[in-house]
Write the structure tokens for this entry.
Amino acid sequence: MSYTETWSGKINRKLIKKLHIIDVAAGREKADLVLKNATYVNVFSGELETCDIAVAEGLIVGLGSYSGVAEVDMTGKIVCPGFIDAHIHLESSLVSPSEFVRAVIPHGTTTVITDPHEITNVMGTDGIDYMLAATEGLPMDTMFMIPSCVPASPLDESGANLDYRDIDSFFEHPRVLGLAEMMNYPGIISADSDTVAKIVASQAHHKKIDGHAPGLTGYDLNAYVAAGVYSDHECATAEDAMRKLRLGQFIMVRDGTAARNLEALMPLIKSPKYFSRCMFCTDDKHPSDLLEKGHIDYICREAVRMGADPIQTVQVACLHAARYFLLNNRGAIAPGYLADFAVVEDLKDFHVVTVYKRGKLVYDQGQVHDFPKPEIPAHLNAKAHDTFHLPVLRAADFAETRSKVVIGMIDGQIITEDLGYANAINLEEDILKMAVVERHKNTRHIGIGYLHGYGLKEGAVATSVSHDSHNIICVGCNDADCAFAVNRIAENKGGIVVVNHGQVIAELPLEIAGLMSDKPLVEVNDLLEKAKAAAHAQGVGNGIDPFMTLSFMALPVIPTVRLTTRGVIDVATQQYI
Amino acid sequence: MSYTETWSGKINRKLIKKLHIIDVAAGREKADLVLKNATYVNVFSGELETCDIAVAEGLIVGLGSYSGVAEVDMTGKIVCPGFIDAHIHLESSLVSPSEFVRAVIPHGTTTVITDPHEITNVMGTDGIDYMLAATEGLPMDTMFMIPSCVPASPLDESGANLDYRDIDSFFEHPRVLGLAEMMNYPGIISADSDTVAKIVASQAHHKKIDGHAPGLTGYDLNAYVAAGVYSDHECATAEDAMRKLRLGQFIMVRDGTAARNLEALMPLIKSPKYFSRCMFCTDDKHPSDLLEKGHIDYICREAVRMGADPIQTVQVACLHAARYFLLNNRGAIAPGYLADFAVVEDLKDFHVVTVYKRGKLVYDQGQVHDFPKPEIPAHLNAKAHDTFHLPVLRAADFAETRSKVVIGMIDGQIITEDLGYANAINLEEDILKMAVVERHKNTRHIGIGYLHGYGLKEGAVATSVSHDSHNIICVGCNDADCAFAVNRIAENKGGIVVVNHGQVIAELPLEIAGLMSDKPLVEVNDLLEKAKAAAHAQGVGNGIDPFMTLSFMALPVIPTVRLTTRGVIDVATQQYI
């Protein structure tokens, strides 16, 4: 649409398409594409049906007997609506949106709803604009929820501090569906004006508000729901989910890399009464997880393996997210709906063989069909590649003689323990220097503490992926390698490094906002796995993911003690120690 | 909201209410109202639950244990969300919207979606404005679908001829939800531009489009659904409904005065798979039917009597219409939802004992609490009371010497048969003079024919309720009484009359657009029943509703022959005979 288009011009433009759609549906004109003899999942009746599926103008127009300019025989396969991920932070894949799309199309994903929370913590609203531009016109639709909590905590030093007015204009964007996960549930429950105002404004725009409130009950949950939070993706138990479902929330059953709730929530998916309030999401998907397991197809496979009805599972994977987000022409195979198809071999393994997006073949025979990358405005691209604003550091910047808290890592978990004080590195006792270096606004803030349980024996490890503010976290066996690692990340414009004796041993540059790479997912995964191996070779324990576990050490909302750019925080009291 | 309110002013105004809601939900402040020990229907979980329901700012804010400024014990009763009628023409009740509301509140109806099709055929878009004004602020919410087919047929002479542009500005109104029943399905299927443009424009405003397509199948149904029609309320068989449900349409299960489909559609209501795509509607409710049977409560009672699950029935009666119309804060009892309650004695008889609207008691102990009538702008009120534009007629205006078609009425049906020609009234053979008198634009058009099967033996009967153009239909035993009856209707500004020998025997004035009375429903019903009795006393057969059956005789879309202002129509060929 051009901005100078008149209203009658717009109606006429749409009318011409609509008349063509009607002519094809009525059998008077040939379809653009017909899937012949297609056994498809009817998400409205909950049945498998077999007939031709006719497509015109990118939409499904008829179910019956049709002929088309292109015809593809679907005998023996099952056609599902394209899968929908109801909540994902694309940045966690460590690749650009284009490369993410290339990675998930083979898994039948045709729509995701993303919350660009990570890049917005780095770039502020320019991060939202960047992601909107970077997802425009891709062969998978990316809809947006606008980050509600930037920064995640007032103790964080992130790249931006957004109030309701900062994000207000985004609600006019056709791909923006609402306000993303309201993690600051204490702020809502305590009726904090600035926090509640974001919900009020999103409602005033008639938009959705997603929730994030693990384990909330009673008055607190009532207050949170009454405030206007319509969904939750943090349910770790069926009881937690049922409490929320009963109060009217939609349940996003999350099964991603960092958190996996499908098994616990199977009672809802299996119930003929409750499943209609459920949808699937992944929240975060790391490269190896995407490559090895898949995406929503993987969740479907797991759900059916654990006893879910296959057709109910497809309804959860397609229709329910579409209805929740008011995307009323997707998630189903019916006239007027987008011709987004995930063609699978069966409803047991959900092995995807062919994928169509708006009637265009985008994946078959193991190959994603090539597509142009979106053009990103120069000022946004420049800004996304210039997010490190800190001086070149020296070993002396990491020196510290006063006692500092020792943060204890726990194998396989992201909570920590408070292990008292240390005043020096002690490799024999696994006491390492940890630093969080402010990198957004050149404040020269460097928070210093000690880490136990990581296991590093030589050199240093650092990453600019550090939730949620994405300052640089560094753990080292000596101050010189700490400084070298942090400087290297700044040189690379972001990413992760493993260094030793002033040499880079392994690294993964993440040049987009310090969070994502422009390289393909396979290459990124390869560099990441090499870096992990290097970190383990330098001593990091096998029970620890060298970078992911580290990435949570600066998030001052997870118990028990965390390190920020200004020092160690007692999470319970929210005080500096 | 004032038109000079700033955005921040609006957000702040809503924020103040929201903070109060949160404070009450969190248990820090007293609720405005608490329904104590309330057993309520949880439409999300499909279960009965018992707890306190707390209300503040007109909304439900908490479910649990609460105290309030007002507390009402609900022990032994069942609290349902207020009932929703998904499709009704309010004009068919023959009373003003205020009086309609007074009549249905005792039945637990708190929201209706109306299509002001009748008054719009008389007054054009001013009719829509009139109905919007006449429903503003009432203790039952009236949402609107904008008439799609005015006139219903190009052969009709109605008061207006509306294209997409005429109705376009109504989509901005907060109570307008979309485009009403697209009855012109032949126009859609044949891809008629002017007809399809109305759908395209409604979609461009992100609004709903309701359907009306009895028995459509195959390519025609595909074309109709692909065009963008999202629902149907004309399903007379379960097969018809399932065909539409499978193609993605929502099914409005209609059970009103003129058409009753509940029994036929019980297989859908009883199915745990299909009921979630169903909602209830009445389409048309005449005065005696409203008084004797009730409204949506009556449909619930009948559905349960015929074997539906009671809780599924409440879900159909409340939640599903709300979700279809994107009224996302009604149809359920949960925090953030409107405090609209229909309190019933049980889920078998659905006898309503108390009704709350936005937390205000509006009905109890058999009494509707008084409410102010909406103020209707003077120009609209004047226009609604000045819709008869025709000359004073004389007997000679009804004289006709040429042969005219005899239209045959069939007992208990609204279809007619073609009985050849007559050239004079013949009471012994039940050949009566019938006339349709144009009354909108002073065109002096009077269509003349003959009617068989009505049974009138003396005088004349006339009505200004004549679908869909609402010209004056008159049937008489002599030309002088025909002229007298039509003149009397014009004097009364509309309504129905029974006359004999130049005297009014009985009459019901309908001074609002010739369709509705300002009197209470009981008085209107009383006058209507007296008029019916008078018509029967003058000979009208017992198998005939003297006015309702007559009101369809001018609708040139129902087989086989009809009389319009320009003469008799062969419905199949759409030609004048």
